[in-house]
């Protein structure tokens, strides 16, 4: 028997009350619960994200459901460690000296 890893994705479920927390267990694995902010982080199989989020949205105690964008991000940072990207558009700031605050009269005199 070979182990196969199924890709999973996170759902953030904002709720009105955490009393119905057990009902969310049937939809996926509960990873984290915030009692103060009243949300539940739930892991679901990636193939079942759309139908599961629609089912969860229909529950009376659910305020909002958000899908995690982590699978869309490139998590390979090994090539970029210790390197700072420099672009030609971004030039380092030159120190001109101390900044002097001008009054509105001085600004008008300077422009004319």
Number of helices: 3
Percent of residues in β-strands: 15-25%
DSSP, total strands: 4
Question: End-to-end distance, in Å?
Answer: 85 Å
List SSEs in N-to-C order. EHEEHEH
CATH architectural type of the domain at 8-72: 2-Layer Sandwich
InterPro entries: DUF2129
Keywords: Cytoplasm
Subcellular location: Cytoplasm
Family: Belongs to the UPF0298 family.
Question: Can you tell me about this structure?
Answer:
The chain contains three helices and four strands. It is an alpha+beta fold and 112 residues long. Strands 2-3-1-4 form a four-stranded antiparallel beta sheet, covered by helices on one side. The mean pLDDT is 85.
Which properties best describe this structure?
UPF0298 protein ACFQZ7_09520, 19% helix, 4-stranded antiparallel beta sheet, cytoplasm, 3 helices, alpha+beta, DUF2129, Alpha-Beta Plaits, 112 residues
Secondary-structure blueprint of this entry?
Blueprint: E1 8-15, H1 21-24, E2 29-34, E3 39-45, H2 49-57, E4 62-67, H3 104-111
Antiparallel strand pairs: 1-3, 1-4, 2-3
Brief rundown of the structure:
This protein has 112 residues and is α+β, with helices and mostly antiparallel strands. The protein has helices at residues 21-24, 49-57, 104-111, and strands at residues 8-15, 29-34, 39-45, 62-67.
């Amino acid at each position: 028997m070979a182990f196969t890893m199924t890709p999973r994705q996170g759902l953030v479920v904002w709720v009105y009350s955490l009393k119905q927390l057990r009902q969310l267990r049937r939809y996926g694995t509960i990873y984290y619960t915030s009692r103060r902010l009243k949300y539940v982080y739930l892991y679901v199989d990636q193939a079942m994200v759309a139908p599961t989020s629609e089912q969860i949205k229909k529950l009376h105690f659910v305020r909002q459901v958000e899908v995690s964008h982590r699978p869309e991000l490139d998590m390979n940072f090994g090539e970029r460690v210790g390197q700072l990207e420099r672009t030609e558009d971004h030039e380092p700031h030159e120190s001109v000296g101390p900044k002097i605050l001008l009054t509105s009269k001085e600004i008008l005199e300077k422009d004319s």
